[in-house]
Amino acid sequence: MSDRVRLWHAGTTVTLPDDPLACVQDGPIVHVVVNRPAKRNAITLQISRDMAAAMKRLAADPVVKLLVLRGAGTQAFSPGADIREFPDVFRKCREHTELQRCRTRRADRLGAVDKPTLAVIYGPCVGGGCGVALACDLRFAPRMPALASRQASLA
After folding, report:
1. CA atoms within 13 A on the CB side of 77
2. Domain containing 32 — which CATH number?
3. Among 1, 5, 83, 153, which residue carries the largest CB count within 10 Å?
4. pLDDT tens digits along 4-44
5. Is pLDDT above 90 for 137?
6. In angstroms, rounded to a whole number, what is the distance separating the alpha carbons of residues 132 and 113?
């Protein structure tokens, strides 16, 4: 599962920890990486919870000056929610409500960060992944990514 990330400030490359959401400090820059390249960085309920908590913690850290959000690898930023969780989550109404709350909390906390946020987009960026990228102040894509919101087609 481990991917490597280039640290801009230090000028080195490091291996990501095996956490589904990895936060790597690089001096005043923190790289927040959805680290599930085998699943194209699909966002689980736990990753949503962890991302909301990380945004709150990093926003309060005076050392942090820039947050860089990205997906592990170069195949995808994120397709959004991990649909393999849906049968379990939707079967339990309480968890579905929690899923919606976590998504809202994640977007609200990301939007409320008073430091610059940058989405580095490699590959498809769809659904909730697109929502994460759009909540950032800036987006950078070295090549034209596929950006889409599936929710718009559901109405």
Report:
1. 31
2. 3.90.226.10
3. 5
4. 888 888 889 999 999 999 999 999 999 999 999 999 999 99
5. yes
6. 13
